[in-house]
What does this fold into?
Amino acid sequence: MPLRPGDGVVLLLAALMLLVPAVGVPHEYILQDTLKSMMVALGTLGAAWLLLWQHRQRNEAMQWHGLLWLPLLLMVYSLGSMAWAHTYLAAVEAVRWFVFALLLWVGLNTLSLERLPLLATGIHWGAVLASLWVALQFWFDFRLFPQAAIPASTFVNRNFFAEFVVSTLPFSVLLAAQARGTEQVALRVFTTAFNLLAVLMTGTRSALVAALLLLLVLPVILFLYRDCFEFPGWRRFQKLLAVLILLGTVFGLGSIETRNPALLAERLGDTGPERSLMRLRSLGQWSEYTSGSASFRLAMWQATGRLMADHPLIGVGAGAWEVAIPPYQTQGTQLETDYYAHNEILQLLAEYGLVGWVFLLALAGYLLRAAWVTWRLGRRDPGGQEAPWRAMTLAALLAFLLVSNAGFPWRLASTGALFALCLAILGVSDLRLAQGQRHSWTPSLPWRPRLVQVMLVLLTTCMALTVWISLQAAACESRLVGALKLAIGINQSGDPMNPRHEVRKAEILRLVREGIAINPHYRKITPMVADELVRWGDWRNARWIWESVVASRPQVAALLANVSMAYAQTGELDKARAYYERARAIQPQAPVVRSLEVLLLARSGQEVQAAQLSRTYLQLAQVELDLVNNAYLLGLRTRDWDLAIEALQQRGRRWPKLAVDSWYKLGQLYARPELHDEARAQQAFQLALDATPVPFREQVRQAIPQPYQSKLR
It folds into this structure.
């Protein structure tokens, strides 16, 4: 594609949209979207700097569109909510909307009709490279990039990948429809079909529904604007070749079965098409909405609805959904179901209140108007290029907004950048169609070379700040992940109390302190380190780590209960009760809160009352392991044998990994002189032996008292 003067900015944007989805981190020390966010922020600032440099001698104002007021409105609200909501999360939101608005502004001033194919090419090939990683992960268990939900390409989660690629399909189809020559037809049709196949491999249902919708919409667009495309002029051979390549890719390559053990274990189909059909079929199963993944989303949406009802006007503050949601979750929920509502519309309204409503209604009104203008334009200028580009962009936004109702693509770097660029394509098209007419919502800004110089200095400062923040983010994540990996390794050694681990334990604490010092608001990884520390009894250090997270997220019942338990373990009962009361005020029915109530009663010398309460709580459907363990110990200390037996039986049934130990202890309990129930003791010892893996059975057999060994099977 030949470059013209002034194409540099669009070339940079195209390169950005190619690299962001295609590039990932081959280790876990930096999260994938952290890298992508760095790239989008620096790429956007770089594109804006280059645009201003090219116009440094300009005297007339740069292009502006009313769409720019929407992200700027959210940015201003975010800055304001820093004063009364969660300061850190609100600041993150303000930066996000600033980058979004800047990218939109750059697009408005660069995306001429002639340059749109260059941008679309970058978007398309970024999706192709990302899809290639998915295919390798699906077919061959390719493990270059760490995965949470495979196959996820470079996105860590397959849903993130599918949401991005399905939103790029209209641009891929447009490029394929504009192909000239047999080689170009074959390549563009194949890569478009390949992207679709990659979406099928993920089985992401929101993306699959969006793809089905596009299968209805895109043929209509191609038919309505057929005079604007090249495909009607293809030779018969080329048309047949395109159809064969499309079908051969989706159903031919799609028939290759996965060799990924994790995907095979899911039992959701061995090929991409089969997997997609099974996942779509699951939407019609009632169990999906009662116990499947859809039930978790429904629970989050219901909780968000209750949150919105309590804060209808000003919301809870930009980015503060995850901080405010715990008291509104279903009773008994002790952790956030997730850190995002998995519905961008609901989360926006919950966080921004009336400002969110203004944003959504204005955006919806604009998109409806844009669709109407596009329809009329196609009828008035059947051979023009403006209408098909607008139609395909609207189709991309349709897919994007659909998946936004089941995920959080606005907050992810790749999809967020695509959202901004789609709006820029529509906005700059509006400006071309207006032919210089100024609207009341379009400001007349003074524009002088000196102003450009000031803006260049500001952008240079922003880029330097972005580099510094990126380095700090990488340093924080690498330290926290490093500490977590060391802690897991010590626990997996089988002998965490061995003195040879002391140096590594000191290193863990150093890394955690440094990570928290950089970012005390890191919710995801920091508490996981503390969870590992308590496995070898380091409650004191686990406590201050949990407390650092509670300072940022003060309404998470499980974290408050963990701090309370840590204080109880170190004998500071007054502080333990204070944190327990905070946890109970938020989620009184949470299993961890009930377990903590029993523990505090026992530690206060009220063992009889604690035992009675344990017996009541053991009858409930949700029971904490700590409660079961404490009930067993209380039963022994109070000589309440029935309680101890019930606790061990539940422990053996509910936690299979502890079955051997549970049944063995139950056998010992029945064999005690106070009970002396030989038949039940023999039965419990047999259950312990049966639950033992074959290589260790002889060891367990030898541990069983001699009178019972001879009767074992």
